[in-house]
Amino acid sequence: MTMTENKETFQNRIAPYFSPSDQLDIKLAYVLAKFGHRAQTRKELTDGHPTRYFEHVRRVAIVLMDEMKIFDRDMIIAALLHDSLEDTEDLTPELLENSFGSNTVAMIKNLSKAPKEGYLERLNNCHNWKALAVKACDRLDNLRSLMIPETTLVFQKRQVKETKEKYFPLFDRLLQDCPAMFIGNISIVRDEIRRLVERYSVMIELQEQTSAKSYTKELVISPELQEALILKQPIPAGIR
Q1: How do residues 165-184 score in pLDDT, each as one tens digit?
Q2: Which is catalytic among the residues 44, 67, 86, 162?
Q3: Rg of the chain, C-alpha, whole Å
Q4: Domain count, the chain
Q5: Known catalytic residue at 165
Q6: Residues near 165 by Cβ (< 8 Å), separated by ≥ 6?
Q7: Has 86 been annotated as catalytic?
Q8: Is residue 2 one of the residues assigned to a domain?
Q9: Residue 41 in contact with residue 50, Cβ under 8 Å?
Q10: What is the pTM of this model?
């Protein structure tokens, strides 16, 4: 049975690892992320309703702790706030620096697509293994919800292609740059990203083949379409 994630379960994760002041910082980041993304939703559904965007940033922080086994104050805060600069108006670099310090806000800026232009180049030039580790958690969570009915085939193909071409090399470099004690668990996350991408590539290829066969079959067996083509008449609307 899957555990329901909430504020209490999240705080229970961090309590054994951090001082009271660090716990307060992480709690503040949690509240700010929830506030900043309060009006935003994801493509996936929860109980038939759009999932609130905050679930994504919280899941990224949980992947960092549960799967990478990394309990680092700055990284957890960056995970919770990694989309804040690009997707919210209230959470500015100045506010975040005043709240969490320059090192944390620098990591958040590394992860931010504000501006979107040059984002991947900035990540490539980033020599902060912690930022790349949070990015790997972010990409894994996005991939886990990629193949839902609410996403288009075009979007799925673009995400898979981008992950292969842009992020595989980044995450390979992450394993070279991170401390030796984290290599094992970061490798597990990196390998899960690769596994999902390979699986999705096959699924997308099969979906395209099925769509092509269905389209070809319709062209062959539809008498109305054949007649329209022969007589050079407009194709009936119902079979376009």
Answers
A1: 999 999 999 999 999 999 99
A2: 86
A3: 22
A4: 1
A5: no
A6: none
A7: yes
A8: no
A9: yes
A10: 0.86
